């Protein structure tokens, strides 16, 4: 009833004048509580009244027709609602029970799904691990397949053997039996191991080191503060390793190097017995024997020299020598198979190791710091009548072994018919004619002269007299600090018309470019019967070392290249390759500036325009490997650099 009176008091709040729709219709039928639709209209009218109050408070006038609430029997509604309370309570309890059962059902379902999720997760982890193993196995098989398909697998065994030999030879001259490349090659794979073990040439050159014994067993022991290497292998293991190299190198001859520490005692028998036992078994296969030690005590009973019947080359490298210890190596004289010796002995008499000098074809005494005198050199050369290659250091040492002095007469004429290579190092400015006095070398092909002192007038005069007799000389090497008379050097070179290769090094050697340039008359006169031949007309290779080239040196160098190239072409000389090397010693690199000259008789270079450029005067063209110059000759000699000069110039 209070609700009805509130609605009637607020009837005129939302009225609008002149609008008949805004008037309240009082002729409505009474409200029937049985109809839900009319009851819904009553509730909406209550909400509209509240909306009108809120809009009026906010200052907004809502133009809406407000109908009066219907006439209802409130007591009927209350009675009906009171009668329905027990039924609604029953429905609430039922709904609560249903909700509880649904919650239990969902919780159980969630638990089941959680267990299923854990099972699936475990299965996924297992599959991922299995997938990782499969992928790793796949990668491993792919790598194995790749290794099997690499080109090295398809190489013939002969090529692989050549690669092995080249690798070992380039690495070191004397590999160690304990740590060396052949041992590393056999550990790569089974195939490489089979190839390396079946390759005897891979095991024919090795070094045996005699380790320093403990200090208490060393006679010549240093101070205890000096550390010494520790022996890690037993004597039996070392003997087996040494014997293994001999076995794998069969049936080829072997080259053995024996190295001992500085404080090795001849009385020490730790590895001395091991070496003697192995060498005595394989002595017939030792072809080269090298001994490196601080003194000759190592030779005392170390090697059974009398059993080395196949020994051809003997190399001795000692820092000092004791005459008492050297007396035991007289057995070298009883080895007629020795044909080559190399002595590097730091004492006054390098000839206390006698050999059959007449059988020697290769003698290397160039590393002896004391050297030998001219008289001794004459004696040695006359004793080595079959000498083919010789290397000597000539100094002021005048010691002559008595056994050699009885067998050689230095005043007697001697001919060495087989000598082809002779290398001489001079401590002082020694006249070359005094060494070659009453000696003839009809087959001498290469002469190398290394002078530690400047070359003066009398030295060049002796060269002039000697060069006239060397008609077979084709290669000449001269190295000295400085030559004071370059004009006399030209006279000496004029006596070598058949010389093909000249290697020269001295401080003013760049002046050679001027004296080696061909005369214009020799380059242009085709019909002359007596042409003005240039110096060294058959020169094919020139190597020049200079400290630093000046601007004039560059110009003279290219003048020499052009004139000699023109001369070769006009005279129709067989010059398939004329090569000039220019080294600048002041630079850090040692690679030369190289020029190769080709006579283009077939004009095969005519169609290769992108690779060639011509000089301003079209006399020849040149090709630069690195293409650093465009259209003109280089103005400087900057190594490393290589230029191919092609003559004559042909239109392209």
If you had to describe this structure to a student in words, what would you say it looks like?
It is a single chain. With 652 residues, this protein is α/β, with parallel strands linked by helices. Among the domains are: 2-83, no CATH class; 500-652, no CATH class. The chain has helices spanning 2-9, 36-57, 74-83, 85-149, 157-171, 181-185, 190-197, 235-248, 272-282, 323-326, 374-383, 402-407, 432-435, 457-467, 486-494, 512-515, 520-524, 551-570, and strands at 205-209, 254-259, 286-293, 313-318, 340-345, 362-365, 389-394, 414-415, 421-426, 439-440, 446-451, 475-479, 501-505, 541-546, 578-584, 593-599, 613-614, 621-624, 641-647. The protein has a 17-stranded mixed beta sheet. Strands 8-10 form a two-stranded parallel ribbon. β11 (446-451), α14 (457-467) and β12 (475-479) form a beta-alpha-beta unit. α14 packs parallel to α15 (486-494). It is elongated and about 160 Å long. The protein starts with a helix and ends in a 5-residue tail after the last strand. InterPro entries: LRR_dom_sf. Residues 1-36 are annotated as: Disordered. This is F-box domain-containing protein. Residues 1-29 have a biased composition (Polar residues).
